[in-house]
Specification:
Four copies of one chain form a homotetramer. The first copy, chain A, is mainly alpha-helical. The first copy, chain A, folds into two domains: 60 residues, MazG-like (Helix Hairpins), CATH 1.10.287; 32 residues, no CATH class. Chains in contact: A-B, A-C, A-D, B-C, B-D, C-D. Chains A and B meet through strand 1, helix 1, helix 2, helix 3 and helix 4 of A and strand 1, helix 1, helix 2, helix 3 and helix 4 of B.
């Protein structure tokens, strides 16, 4: 059974120690980390760019799935690192966002359409 | 005190219900969600593009910090959604990746340098 | 008839004057412009994220096509600006790249497959 | 002396023939090409992510400059390919955009500030 709770404290501590041991704090400005996240998002895109939507479910493609897991992990670590450095409460930000999406996309207006809320 | 455990079950369930209620599963192929994640990464970049590294710490800039929290939340929800749809164990992927980084970037080779491991 | 030659001199000159008149050279480090390009690439992604491949041909969707033209123009101006600031010969770089792609993707190995050249 | 006119006809023709010879038109939906462009923008980001703004001028770093030229070429070819497939007039789109930017960013409001026009 997968562990379904991400322990942000542990991840933050790991990343802090990892950077400190390598003297990498000098590179870890929020701006730089945001660029690094962009780079990883680009690598994720590359895994899917020539796949059809059907193929993108990666039914029997365990090799690509491993690579995807790897890229998601990369993006996630940058999210945690950035939020740590900027003292952003990730849980709070996430749930606020999800609640806001409920308001921005009321079921009756958004059912079956991919329109942006600004177009309602 | 911020809650430092992200409950992936709760987030996944919220996102599943959110999509189902709006009949949005039709849009949520992994490929499409990866593009949506790219879009959010782009919005995060825009918040930092004209800031110096110093400014990117957002010392007294609570307004930008809120926007950053918002974009990190957006990216995070897409990561959770994609990993849910592809049955990827995010915790496992993350910690595997972190352990691998320890091997790829040994302290003695990577100390004080931003070189990629392929250049060692 | 569309004009099929992009005059890089004119575009570079426009962009230089545009930045100079607004005292924006201070913001236009190559690093910052690369982030701005990422942001525009993200906006382009957003226009396509929920479209199927079929819909992405934008057959009768002149409104989205205008937005796409707009985003492509944004990305293009950043490419020209970055290459100007770094004294990169864009024509030369492009044709070198296209020739290299011919070598990396020989017809007999790449026919009908989206494999990357590293996987041949 | 670098050639300062990009011949879009020649580039489009090259790319059409390149795709046709490899039976790659099946992969070249606008949606897929937009993802590929995102991937290349991510690679460009990676080249700059750990550089300071000063270092990003690549003064004596011809090796990185070559890689940057290479990535700019990659992004450019996708822009040309997408505009070809969607019958977008790139020259027209670019100059319309540049003129619009003059209106959106009047010198007196934008001088010395990186604010977005929506914040004036």
């Amino acid at each position: 059974m997968p562990n379904k709770t991400l322990n942000l404290n542990d991840i933050e501590t790991f990343l802090r120690n990892f950077a400190a041991a390598r003297d990498w704090q000098q590179f870890h400005s929020p701006k730089n980390l945001v660029m690094a996240l962009s780079g990883e998002a680009g690598e994720l895109s590359e895994l899917f760019q020539w796949l059809s939507e059907d193929q993108s479910w990666l039914k029997d493609d365990t090799e690509t799935k491993k690579k995807v897991a790897n890229e998601l992990a990369d993006i996630l670590q940058y999210i945690v690192r950035i939020s740590d450095l900027l003292s952003i409460d990730l849980n709070d930000a996430l749930w606020k966002k999800l609640r806001r999406n409920e308001e921005k996309y009321p079921v009756e207006l958004s059912k079956g359409t991919a329109k942006k809320y600004t177009e309602f």
